[in-house]
Specification:
Layout lengths: L16 E4 L10 E2 H7 L6 E6 L2 E5 L9 E3 L15 E5 L12 E3 L6 E6 L8 E2 L24 E3 L2 E5 L3 E6 L2 E6 H13 L6 E3 L4 E5 L3 E6 L4 H5 L4 E6 H15 L25 H4 L56 H6 L7 E2 L2 E3 L2 E11 L3 E3 L4 E7 L2 E7 L5 E7 L3 E5 L3 E18 L4 H6 L11
Antiparallel strand pairs: 1-24, 2-25, 3-4, 5-7, 6-8, 9-18, 10-11, 11-12, 12-13, 14-15, 14-21, 15-16, 16-17, 19-20, 20-26, 21-26, 22-25, 22-26, 23-24, 23-26
Helix pairs in contact: 2-4
The protein binds P-hydroxybenzoic acid (PHB) and fe (iii) ion.
């Protein structure tokens, strides 16, 4: 029988927490939005997440708020109950102080034309991902091996697969990984454009993103390999390594295997070569320019456009926000049910951009089983657990030494410091909001020590 989806509410929430192994729990700035809101005054804005100039605030909406103006987009996610939001286009544009950041309270009521009323119990975010596959003969052998799979090479690295394993070789070492785990990892690495910082496929092999070029490495973030002098890295143009991973995915993914799916929702990756699954490995990558559901932006998901409700989210309400726009403002008022959107995701562990404010990106995703990579970040990122539960194993980014275990339940918020690596475990399909700051300046600021690895100093 399907397990129920567990959302939090002001009346009932459970809180996870940080189990420290060798760490300071303050690094994770752990809180729960329902707890924070239940202790706040109505419409008091309490920052629960802060990434340089961007914040996430928890607000208890009760009664009627004052009016506020902002010089930039703000995104509101209703986590409990129902909220009516009224929008007005002010007649007087100088209500927004020039150069201001964030929202500013107004003394009275603004005069202006109403734009809308009432969003409801959803929010806006989204998820998805993809890549294009192009087999490039110069990267791989023409003749298949005895199991039917081609061998691949890039620089001094070679990749071969048998029925169960991938064999990676480099000048001073060799390594084996299970082929299902390897395909899940390279699928995400290439779909995410090598992500932020380090994507470890396991404790030995992975990539470092230099945003234009990428290092492929063995043993580089493994204290024992480093001490033995056995680590190895090679730098490639991002495009070359994308083409390699796309070619491997095309050749090594059998007909029944989907690297983005949960283990229960896909067939086996193992055995001799058996067809291919181009549809699974070339999914559209969803990256909203401003917000999903906005005119000309990424569409919401429906049965009709090929996104049925996932088997583990059949109890997630599908009601859509009511939007009442004044004539002439129909294209300016956007509200979607984010939980319904996520309940229709056909992939796991695949954050996608559903809303954008400058470099602040909301990247929600649905999670089931184990994050197929171990992410070593080059900046701080934040998690907001939207439903159910994920446990995170956190290790030192460079050595792999164990630091903490972070348990996140619905409504929990936690930062992931810039000097860790982490891997998530989700026993039931769950919804997670990953909040990223995509500013290109950040890796250098953290690497030089100008910015401390934890986002808040207590
Ligand atoms: C992460 O590394 O922070 C991450 C990656 C993929 C997910 C969730 C979190 O689906
Ligand atoms: Fe991460």
């Amino acid at each position: 029988m399907a397990q129920p989806t567990r959302f939090g509410s002001l009346r009932h929430f459970e809180k996870g927490g940080v189990e420290v192994i060798k760490d300071d729990p303050r690094n994770y700035v752990f809180s729960n939005v329902f707890e924070v809101a239940s202790k706040a005054k109505p419409y008091e804005k309490v920052a629960v997440g802060k990434n340089i100039e961007y914040v996430i605030e928890a607000i208890r909406a009760e009664g009627t708020s004052g009016w506020r103006v902002a010089a930039q987009d703000e995104f509101a996610l209703v986590m409990d109950g129902e909220v009516e939001v009224r929008l007005v286009k002010p007649d007087n544009p100088s209500l927004v102080p020039p150069g201001s950041q964030g929202s500013v309270p107004l003394a009275g009521d603004p005069t202006g034309r109403p734009r809308s009323a009432r969003p409801p119990p959803g929010r806006r975010l989204r998820e998805d991902d993809a890549m294009t596959t192009d087999t490039l003969p110069e990267l791989g052998s023409i003749e298949p091996n005895q199991y039917g799979y081609r061998n691949f090479a890039l620089g001094k690295f070679t990749f071969a697969r048998d029925e169960y394993f991938v064999h990676v070789r480099w000048p001073n070492g060799t390594h084996m990984l299970p082929v299902d785990a390897f395909l899940r990892a390279i699928q995400r690495d290439v779909a995410w454009g090598f992500f932020y910082g380090i994507v470890n496929f396991d404790t030995v092999i992975g990539t470092v993103n230099h945003y234009g070029t990428v290092d492929l490495f063995a043993g580089r973030f493994n204290a024992q390999y480093r001490q033995a002098g056995l680590d190895y890295s090679e730098n490639f143009k991002s495009d070359a390594i994308s083409r390699l991973f796309e070619a491997i995915l095309a050749d090594w993914t059998n007909a029944t295997f989907d690297p983005f799916a949960s283990p229960e929702e896909t067939g086996t990756a193992f055995g001799p070569k058996n067809g291919s699954n181009k549809r699974a490995i070339t999914r559209h990558r969803v990256t909203a320019k401003r917000m999903i559901g906005a005119p000309g932006d990424e569409p919401v998901r429906t049965d009709d456009n090929g996104f049925p409700i996932n088997r583990q989210f059949t109890d997630v309400p599908q009601d859509a926000p009511e939007v009442h726009a004044e004539p002439g403002f129909e294209h300016e008022v956007v509200s979607v049910n984010l939980f319904a959107y996520l309940s229709r995701s056909d992939v796991t562990w695949n954050p996608s951009v559903v809303s954008v404010c400058k470099n602040s990106l909301y990247c929600p995703t649905t999670e089931e089983y184990i994050l197929p990579i171990i992410h070593g970040n080059d900046r701080v990122e934040w998690f907001v657990q939207l439903c159910d539960e994920i446990q995170w194993e956190v290790e030192d980014r460079d050595t792999g030494a164990v630091r903490a275990r972070v348990t996140m339940k619905a409504g929990d918020v936690a930062a992931m410091p810039a000097d860790i690596r982490h891997r998530g475990f989700s026993p039931k399909r769950s919804m997670l909001l990953v909040w990223e700051n995509a500013s290109p300046e950040l890796p250098a600021l953290y690497a030089s020590g100008k910015m401390p690895p934890a986002p808040v100093q207590f």
